[in-house]
Amino acid sequence: MAVLLRDITLGQFFPGNSLLHKTDPRYKIIIAMVYIVSLFLAKGVLSYALVLVFTFAMIIFSGIPLRIVVRGFKALMFIIAFTAILNIFWTKGENLIFEYKFIKIYAEGVTYAVFMILRLLCLLTGSSVLISYTTSPIALTYGIEKLLAPLNLIKVPVHEFSMMMTIALRFIPTLIEETDKIMSAQKARGADFTSGGIIKRAKALIPILIPLFVSAFRRADELAVAMECRCYNGGKGRSKMTKLKTKPLDIIMLLVFSAFTAGIILLNGITLF
Amino acid sequence: MAKIELCGVSYVYSSKTPFEKKAVNNIDVAIEEGSITGIIGHTGSGKSTLVQILNGLLEPTSGKVLFNGADMHAKKTKLSDIRFKVGLVFQYPEYQLFEETVESDIAYGPKNMGLDKAEIEKRVHDAAKFCGIEEAILKKSPFELSGGQQRRVAIAGVMAMTPEVLILDEPAAGLDPQGRSDIFGGICEYRRKTGATVIIVSHSMEDIARYCENVLVMSKGEVFDYGSCDKIFERSDELEAIGLDIPQIARLLRRVGEMGVSFDKNIYTVGEAYRSIIPFIKGGGGSAS
Ligand SMILES: Nc1ncnc2c1ncn2[C@@H]1O[C@H](COP(=O)(O)OP(=O)(O)O)[C@@H](O)[C@H]1O
Ligand SMILES: [Mg+2]
Questions:
Q1: Do residues B160 and B261 share a domain?
Q2: From the CA of B12, which ligand is nearest?
Q3: Complex prediction ipTM
Q4: If you count residue pairs, one on A and one on B, with CB atoms under 8 Å apart, how many are there?
Q5: Do B229 and B280 reside in the same domain of the chain?
Q6: E-strand spans in B55-98?
Q7: Owning domain of residue B108
Q8: Which ligand is located closest to the Cα atom of residue B218?
Q9: Total domain count for chain B?
Q10: Which pLDDT does position A11 carry in this prediction?
């Protein structure tokens, strides 16, 4: 399990110095949305080719090792396989390429499945490269808070939500580390998390979960007291140490991504065959 | 004979990621059977990593760990057996208590060993005795005890497995003087009764000088020096350079020595100092020892 926890690269920040790292988090959230919408607009071989090239370029520019990006796919393996199978067997078309009893596979189904897999992989890669890998969690929540600020007008406690998110994000690594420590300690007392049936394995988790909950509550308590001691009383009148300012780079990024969308729409119009 | 031997052991955390961190580097150390060894070093010098390598929780990135002369990570050795034989008490072990009663928490280790009920009960009571846990406390919930008591329960939980090697990572961190000496007293008692090899990680030179025969000094993931207390404390200037200190009483006696009154150089505990200062005072000055 310790290994498993480490393998979830989704939502893991990789410090770096690339242009993507330097882009304003507000803009990054917007361009991520632009990117995702473009993905769903793409139809046909040409536009998918553009998507692939663009996504690949994005990975190169971000400086994130390809190996790390690919490792992120593992978590989605099941969903990808599931969608692929569903599409292959249930899509009806005109060109039958395989038939066995009640199983019928059409060429359209295969094409559709391939596109679907590409779309899912790009979705995962794009959003993690644009957001999780290149944006620190704190910058990300700040960006979200700023983008959602208009909701304050209709009395949505945006700041409180973002504070909750910041705290949750802040404590995820701490909790993972703590889980690791508790697991090691129980292993030192002979705990075995990897053998036996499902009931035995579930039971083996008790010695981890109880200390983990106890310490999570203790931490929450201490944090609340510490925040009160520093006079935290919600969002009203709070200012930030570093203010977000739009830079030329942010505008350029936005333009590049808009061009990408335009490119896809254009290529959709051209038919190859 | 060497009980545990490290041959060129290195360990790297988060290998092959941007967070890669070399925690210990090329360590060669042999821990003698029956000895009591102190490990000391600055925070982050790799002490906790080292002790986890010693009981097989971490497999070294390179190098070999020999337990009783056999490779710990060889295919045929069962790591779980090693962990029962090399008991490790983590730093702040009180955060790992989880059972409903103190008794069943101490019994968790022995139960995992597959012992029968009578034997488990006997071991729980023995371990409780080593750690000074009264019978009345055994039936209580571990969560209603004081921090010091919880610590003792957690240590008893490892002693109940009667390991041949007992390793404790900063067992006395954050305790009051009484709590400290209770814990160390319990460890010495355990060692006396079972003849176990003991390794104690500590920040306090005083504690190490008082309870250990050998000292392993770590600095930046490497072994700075390893040997008897006398040999190590002689290098006090170099120790200071890596941010460590010799026991205060030894420093005091050295200062006094510089002023012209020389005592035995190898005095590191208050008790020894007392025994050599008092005759000096009674003798009305002059040269001691
Ligand atoms: N789980 C871990 N992941 C990554 N780095 C770690 C981990 N545990 C310890 N380290 C790093 O390894 C080094 C040695 O740590 P540690 O063995 O805990 O030292 P000590 O116990 O002497 O304070 C430190 O620099 C620490 O930051
Ligand atoms: Mg440590």
A1: no
A2: 1
A3: 0.85
A4: 57
A5: no
A6: 62-67, 70-71, 86-89
A7: 2-245
A8: 1
A9: 2
A10: 53
